[in-house]
Design brief:
The complex is a heterodimer. By secondary structure, chain A is mostly helical. Chain A has 13 helices and four strands. Chain B is an alpha/beta fold. In chain B, helix 2 runs parallel beside helix 13, helix 6 crosses helix 7 and helix 9 packs parallel to helix 10. Classes of the chains: A mainly alpha, B alpha/beta.
């Protein structure tokens, strides 16, 4: 079996779409790590929660005739559903922080980590008990078309996912680097106590971090539901692990690193599954992680973490 | 201080003594005895039932629970059993389709001495490791659904199954692809589990032996959702069919992603795909024309299929009958029949003793029972002598028996 290079453009499209989702989730890990030096293992459940919230609002709002009668209605419907799902997931993230992590903020670093695993199990089992153990179909209400671009089939969904992901990434990057609140977040990340002394409200910055990260994870969950057509209570597990890997490859704590890591990981997986063997794609992805950690222990863009005093 | 110590010592002795009584009570005769209506003593005997009640394949696993529940209910209405002084109850444990959880579930069941047999499990990957637990405990295991040949090749005398094995099912699918579908090039995918690998290998072997070409052999991981890269790779090889050795979630996602990528060929698989959930996940339009083989005859053609359907709908209104419900029913009924024979020979209070459990194993081995799925009897390995396989195709959003 020789390697068929004609599928390269298609594999790049596959990889970029997957990578975009990884990047969105990875941002949640890296934001929280940057501020609290803690790995929020409950983040993969935010991804799941976002998908369920999205389905809930989609089911409610698609009953309104205005939204399903015209193209503008559809666009508005999805924008509103996305905003609602992201807001609800964000609030869930803030509640998690308030009740599971804030009481442990001055505890040894292992304690919030264990608490995060507890939250993860709790949310997963809550969805299992209250909703269903089965896969639930996630409808795509607008017609999906395929376009032929440079030798690859690109669907409306893939374009939507990649474009929205890039917009969200640019939006977040601008927010962190240009706004006053973004500056407060960066200050908290550099030195929490000193930032507090300079008048930054640490609690609200941390709460905001726990809103933004899960909101982006929730958006990724909705994208995943639309892209794969169904959602399930344990859907966050694999993307969660992969995105955490992406955040580490890019340099955990570094926003642009998480984005880069997400796209690199998605790309590696697609190429590995497409040209080697799909059974080995995870092996290759984690091999790359090990190589990155050997040669650049801080991750690809990870220098900013080292500056921490 | 000495008083405190001796008090504690007496408390300990009391606890130990009561424990000993419980243990001898359970082990010596049978389990708990309850007073029957007429004042006669009813011996309670348990049948363990373990399959995935949660997780990715819960649809099939809960079906097994339903089938076994029906059998146990029916057995308790059987006057013959009441006359023997036996009341049967189910001991249901979730194995989550996971080998480790399965072994825990198995230990939980065998540690209750009233359990004389188990209807377990769905997945071959779970049934194989747990069979050693049942073998050591000396109780009979009848699997309703584990089709990997290795299960009964371990030489355990207590292991049986009422479903046809993968060597039969895989080679049937290989012949079917050539004779009925006219396929010449097939991409074979398995999900890296004993069930999926075994089935896919048998299919590929038969398909190649009949002159077909296997253009790709790929492995996937359970719980993965993204098969786009795999589909793109397969698409370039231009197969007429995709064969998936695996369960419905992954197979449905492969079918959906293949059609979305423009690879409009049927996806075929084994009994792990034969559930409405496959169609729901893939989407009715994508699943149209996809195929699955399943063990035995379609429900309507099974000797007592119509009766089963009526009883099922009365007991579980609103639920659908899944692939293994009738097999679980027959598996439980085989154990019930064996219990009846042993109780008649040795007395009801002897069934749950080690000797009684051994007698149950021997009774199952020699059983000849007219079940819902057909006449149930076992060969020397413990496999069913019923080798029927049926092919199903998705038509208008539901699996129906394939007709040319």
């Amino acid at each position: 079996m020789s390697i068929d290079l004609s599928t390269v453009p298609q594999q790049i499209v596959n990889g970029v779409t997957l990578g975009g989702m990884y990047a969105l989730i990875a941002l949640g890990y890296t934001l929280v790590y940057g501020i609290l030096l803690m790995i929020n293992f409950a983040h993969s459940e935010m991804f799941m929660a976002g998908a369920y919230f999205g389905l809930l609002f989609l089911n409610i709002l698609s009953k309104v005739a205005f939204f399903t009668s015209s193209t503008i209605g559809f666009i508005l419907l999805y924008v509103i559903v996305f905003l609602l799902a992201m807001t609800c997931t964000g609030i869930l993230g803030m509640l998690t922080e308030r009740f599971a992590y804030r009481p442990l903020r001055h505890a040894p670093r292992l304690a919030p980590l264990i608490s995060a695993i507890g939250v993860s199990l709790f949310l997963q089992n809550a969805a299992l008990l209250w909703i269903s153990s089965r896969s639930i179909p996630f409808p795509v209400l607008f017609p999906v078309k395929n376009y032929r671009i440079a030798g690859a089939n690109v669907s409306t969904l893939q374009i939507l996912i990649v474009v929205s992901t890039i917009l969200l990434l640019i939006g977040l990057d601008t927010f962190i680097s240009k706004t006053k609140i973004g500056k407060a977040m960066r200050a908290t990340s550099q030195d929490r106590d000193a930032a507090g002394l300079m008048g930054v409200n640490i609690n609200s910055v941390i709460a905001l971090t726990f809103f933004i990260g899960p909101a982006l994870g929730g958006a990724a969950g909705m994208f995943s539901g639309m892209y794969y057509g169904n959602i399930k209570y344990n859907m966050g597990f694999i993307p969660g692990i992969k995105s955490f890997t992406a955040a580490v490859i890019g340099g955990i704590g570094n926003l642009r690193g998480a984005m880069l890591g997400g796209f690199i990981l998605g790309f590696i997986e697609a190429i590995a599954a497409g040209f080697l063997s799909s059974g080995y794609k995870d092996v290759i992805a984690f091999l790359i992680l090990i190589l990155v950690l050997i040669f650049r222990p801080g991750g690809l863009l990870g220098e900013s973490v080292v500056e921490k005093v | 201080m000495t008083i405190g110590k001796s008090k504690r010592f007496f408390a300990l002795v009391a606890v130990l003594a009561s424990l000993t009584m419980v243990v001898t009570g359970c082990g010596g005769t049978s389990a708990d005895t309850t007073d029957g209506d007429a004042g006669s003593e009813m011996v309670e005997i348990k049948i363990g039932v373990s399959s995935p009640f949660t997780g990715d394949v819960a649809a099939l696993g809960l079906g097994i629970k339903n089938g076994a529940t029906l059998a146990i209910d029916e057995a308790n209405n059987d006057p013959e059993l009441a006359e023997l002084g036996i009341k049967i109850s189910g001991f249901f444990v979730d194995d989550a389709a996971d080998p480790k959880t399965g072994v825990t579930a198995a230990n939980q069941m065998v540690s209750d001495s009233a359990v004389v047999g188990v209807v377990a499990h769905l997945n071959s990957g779970v049934s194989i490791p747990t069979s050693a637990v049942y073998n050591e405990a000396g109780i009979v295991q009848v699997s309703p659904a584990s089709t990997n040949p290795a299960l009964t090749e371990q030489g355990f005398a207590n292991v049986f199954r009422v479903c046809t094995i993968d060597t039969v099912q895989g080679s049937f699918a290989g012949d079917f692809a050539i004779d009925m579908l006219g396929a010449t090039k097939v991409a074979v995918i398995d999900d890296s589990t004993p069930y999926g690998e075994g089935l896919a290998a048998e299919f590929a072997k038969q398909f190649a032996a009949r002159g077909g070409e296997v253009v790709a052999t790929e492995k996937i991981q359970l719980k993965d959702q993204d098969f786009k890269a795999l589909v793109t790779k397969i698409q370039a090889l231009d197969p007429d069919m995709i064969y998936v050795g695996g369960m419905y979630t992954e197979a449905a996602l492969i079918s959906k992603q293949a059609k979305e990528a423009g690879l409009d060929v049927p996806t075929m698989g084994g009994d792990g795909l034969y559930t409405q959930q496959f169609v729901d996940i893939a989407g009715a339009a994508n699943a149209e024309g996809d195929l699955a083989t399943s063990v035995g005859l379609p429900l309507d053609l099974q000797p007592k299929g119509v009766d089963f359907k009526a009883a099922f709908e009365a007991t579980f209104p609103g639920q659908t009958i899944e692939a293994y419900d009738t097999y679980a029913y027959d598996a439980a009924m085989v154990i019930v029949e064996a219990i009846k024979q042993v109780a008649a020979d040795m007395g009801a209070d002897q069934v749950a003793t080690p000797a009684g459990k051994q007698a149950v194993i021997e009774a199952v081995a020699a059983i000849n029972y007219a079940g819902v799925t057909g006449d149930v009897s076992f060969d020397e390995k413990g496999d069913t002598t019923n080798k029927a396989i049926t092919a199903y195709v998705v038509k208008d959003g539901a699996f129906v028996p394939y007709e040319q």
